[in-house]
Amino acid sequence: MTTWVEHAIWWQVYPLGFVGAYPAATPPTPAEHRLRRLVDWLDHAVRLGVSGIALGPIFDSRTHGYDTTDHYVIDPRLGNLDDFDHLVTEAHARGLRVLLDGVFNHVGPMFTRPELFKRRGNTVATFEGHDGLLTLDHSKPELIEYVVDVMCHWLTRGADGWRLDAAYAVPDRFWNAVLPNVRDRFPDAWFVGEVIHGDYPARVQASTVDSVTQYELWKAIWSSLNDANFHELDWALQRHNEFLNSFVPLTFVGNHDVTRIASCLRDRRHREHALVILLTIGGVPSIYAGDEWGWTGVKEERFGGDDAVRPEFAPSPTEADNDMTRLHRFLIGLRRDHPWLHRARTETLRIDNRQYVYRSTDGERSIVVALNVADEPLHLPADGAAAGYRVLGGSGAPAPAVLETVSVPPQGWMILAPH
After folding, report:
1. Which of 28, 48, 229, 412 lies 20 to 30 Å from 57, alpha-carbon distance?
2. Rounded to two decimals, what is the model's pTM?
């Protein structure tokens, strides 16, 4: 059983973009060892408070990394095996776990094992109509053996788990055949499947993955803030409670595949609300690199449409902290002080379109979160939702030490904990 993930908070990085390897007018060579740039950012991750780094594709490919050529070889644009080993060693030395991105639904046209392609007559099947992404045949026992071996190869070299790209497109029976074999050798490894919609608990049970990506909640967070409709968020959190009965989802407000949260939200003040929600509810939270500064970036449905959300970072941290950076540190610290939030359920205390108060609880432990996107204050009397609670943090002026009422300012938020 994987227990370390109960304390996991990921900092997600898309390496090819992060180190300027793709897109690039002149792709870097292995001699540049670009992957080592990430090592210079590990102390930033530690200061942020996360417990691990979730890497995008790092294996040999020709373009964006999801067109894998060889799962056993580090992408030459990033460097070589020594660079990977160095990154893992330095991450583990700082107490950071490392999650790899496994693309096992499809590969690139130059894939080293073409006998594993899925064919329709003389034609190789493609993934979602992309000519450069060829689908693998998940009915082949040889593919099961191949994926088990690849996963174990990199877990042996120090990886701590796998994100399974496009897991929604792979038959659950395939993962069910692969993952138990990997867990036999690496019982502490953690596996999260990329699932966009559908019956999350059924997919988890049938596939045996530990977790799936919580896209329902992601959408509800930014949409409810944009529309001033907390009923949408409340519905999604009730669904989230049901998911927590059988597994703990990977939660996020940004990743390498979607428009950055700062660009999703019409009112920049609501970036704080989105982060407060993410870090005060049950789940395994993931912070997309750059969001801690409030970076913007819009994903477009065209060739190269992901580039804006996968930018190059400086070789080492140079950007000064701002209000969003400090808020990330505060909320991540709060979550690490309350690790029971991993499996916390939410209970609605008060709701209308623009004001929402919920309690996150796990048995006798709880916090209260008040969100206000109205243009008037939200008042919580001490004999109501604020009874017996003290203010941990919030926007606006500090709350008095002795509570008679708690006032959440317009467009503000507040977190309270029991005395």
Report:
1. 48
2. 0.96
Q: Give the span between the Cα atoms of 388 and 140, in whole angstroms.
A: 60
Closest of 389, 388, 394, 392 to residue 407, by C-alpha? 394
pLDDT in tens, 235-286: 999 999 999 999 999 999 999 999 999 999 999 999 999 999 999 999 999 9
Model confidence over 289-328: pLDDT tens digits?
999 999 999 999 888 899 999 999 999 999 999 999 999 9
**Residue 254 shares a structural domain with residue 145:** yes
Of 343, 367, 401, the position where a domain reaches its end is 343
Could you tell me the residue range of the domain that residue 381 belongs to? 347-418
Residue 387 pLDDT level (bands cut at 50, 70, 90): confident
Other CB atoms within 10 A of residue 375 CB:
8
Look up residue 405 and give its two tokens. 């009422």
Token pair of 229 as six digits: 């409709």
Place of tokens 């940004």: 254
Q: In this structure, which amino acid lies at residue 133?
A: L
Q: What single DSSP character describes residue 30?
A: G
DSSP class of 409? P
**77 lies in the same domain as 123:** yes
Sign of the alpha-carbon dihedral angle for 309, 94, 98, 342: negative
Whether residue 89 is found in the same domain as residue 137: yes
User: Is the domain of 246 the same as that of 334?
Assistant: yes
What separation in angstroms does the CA of 353 have from each of 93, 227, 379?
A: 47, 9, 15
Q: Give 153's contacts (C-beta < 8 A, 6+ positions apart).
A: 72
> Which of 304, 324, 343 delimits the end of a domain?
343
Give the C-alpha separation, 212 to 234, whole Å: 20
pLDDT tens digits, 155-173: 999 999 999 999 999 999 9
- CA 93-178-254 angle, 5° bins: 55
* CATH code of the domain in which 384 resides: 2.60.40.1180
Is a pLDDT exceeding 90 seen at residue 154? yes
Is the CB of residue 348 less than 8 Å from the CB of residue 234? yes
Give SS3 for 5.
Answer: helix
pLDDT above 70 as % of the chain: 97
